[in-house]
């Protein structure tokens, strides 16, 4: 297997992309000196400058580096190159809480309460330090290998938000189904009470297996949220129902506060306060250096095209670090990414992807061995957009990753089923597996 071409940023060897947003992406990485696995969030400097976000990002990152809580993803260090900012984060290997619900359905009340207790612990701790999430949802709640909940992107999920002179936030952000009514009204809102509402929606989803507010039409959805029109299922205990109704209060002034949640009878059952030390000194030298354009934490990103994939990167792309999973089917589980392998030359793969995507209504942007496919029609959650990248696994074998970067996950799934037919003849099927056994990845 070819290992000559690796992507390196400072002392970190980069692996697969774990997630991607409008101006940031998160990659799997390994510290080559220690062997420690981390996740690296990469921000585009040009977009940060364009949105005048430098001071706010510096403030958020500095605060997050000082936060050390067992239920919040840890921020280790910050680096920068000429064009990017790299935020090195704790890697959490147990997947999203959303996947647990999608795969197994609603949780039992005791299990849901345990996750909710950890969520409230994390939110309360960060609020006490002036950090608000503003996009709390099961997709942003990760699980470690021991099943402990970890809130991700706390303080980094809404970097473009601004607080006006009245001390309130004024930009509606987050996933509408989880967003508090005062956020949607755009009259200013308190980040503390808005996060509490989202925690209530999450608790409902954990116990019910579905959303309390869910309409295909945004106008109908907002009306339900404004009035808090929802019904708890019959299997909710009476005390759970009481707490959820106090959290999902459309009036932020009378909505239950975290201090009151901590004293609630249902919440306190089996409650274990978090144990952690908070006395360790944390240096902000790297943060200051990055934003003062100091050369001390300046790094370069080196890569060859197409990128050769070494054993570490190949393992990082397999679920649960099991190489066998690379070629297994997981039918019925809708994911946001997928991969397939091909023995054709990289240039031919790129051409075939373009030829197949364009008739399906996608605009194609190419950059070396990466492509962006942008749908020309707006779907349920805006335009579907897909990022693709070709990796060299061996001289005669390539792996192609397709990753949804915008739009609805179900629409991505439907797109791929059609797209798959157009590329069928270039997909390599390993011996002993069924035809078309590409692995939908996480």
Count of individual beta strands: 16
Largest beta sheet: strand ordering? 5-6-4-3-2-1-9
Tally of individual helices: 14
Q: How far is the N terminus from the C terminus?
A: 25 Å
Order of helices and strands: EEEEHHEEHHEEHHHHHHHEEHEHEEEEHE
Mean pLDDT: 78
Would you spell out the secondary-structure blueprint of this structure?
Blueprint: E1 8-9, E2 12-20, E3 24-31, E4 37-44, H1 45-50, H2 54-66, E5 75-80, E6 84-90, H3 97-104, H4 109-127, E7 141-143, E8 149-151, H5 181-184, H6 191-208, H7 218-227, H8 238-247, H9 258-261, H10 265-268, H11 285-291, E9 301-302, E10 307-308, H12 311-316, E11 337-342, H13 346-357, E12 362-367, E13 370-379, E14 382-394, E15 397-406, H14 409-422, E16 439-441
Helix pairs in contact: 4-6
